[in-house]
Amino acid sequence: xxxxxxxxxxxxxxxxxxxxxxxxxxxxxxxxxxxxxxxxxxxxxxxxxxxxxxxxxxxxxxxxxxxxxxxxxxxxxxxxxxxxxxxxxxxxxxxxxxxxxxxxxxxxxxxxxxxxxxxxxxxxxxxxxxxxxxxxxxxxxxxxxxxxxxxxxxxxxxxxxxxxxxxxxxxxxxxxxxxxxxxxxxxxxxxxxxxxxxxxxxxxxxxxxxxxxxxxxxxxxxxxxxxxxxxxxxxxxxxxxx
Length: 242
Description:
Elements: H1 2-22, E1 40-60, E2 78-92, E3 95-113, E4 123-142, E5 145-164, E6 166-186, E7 191-207, E8 215-233
Antiparallel strand pairs: 1-2, 1-8, 2-3, 3-4, 4-5, 5-6, 6-7, 7-8
């Protein structure tokens, strides 16, 4: 009887072991990682380097005819700038639509001489000390990278410093248009780095120097800028991208 019970127990153990080997193995599911979304608002700071072109076409005030003192070359103001920017985005699929504004301090300066003005030559110096813009943005997102184009209205405070025996300053705030593009990259759920290039055209503006009213100066100002920026996006991931 004892041998019978022992044999029966061994048989049951073998059957149970074989059945356990056939059972499926369950493992813990990996934690869900939510998709990055560009939807949301952000606030950031930026620095940049700018180089511009300010060409003066001089005419006689009474007749409007070209003078023989028009500079042969343009002034090329260059310098650094820094400031802040803010905006909001909305993502639909891989496309991102947004609006952004920025304001900057600048220290651009450049000068050139008037032709046939004697020795020492008369000259004018272009100075830009502040700028701003309001723009739209359209981008294509590849997860945490956003390639975008941007364009809108731009503003610049410009001072024309003319030295014609004596000197005069003519300050104006110019408006124009700007267009460019760049790459945003989200390093974390909130911090976004940026590199951007923009071109701005502030059109043509005219004035008569008080120290030399016989001539009218017609300036045309354009600018190129490369910027680096870092922004904080409110709300982290912002939910699913879809």
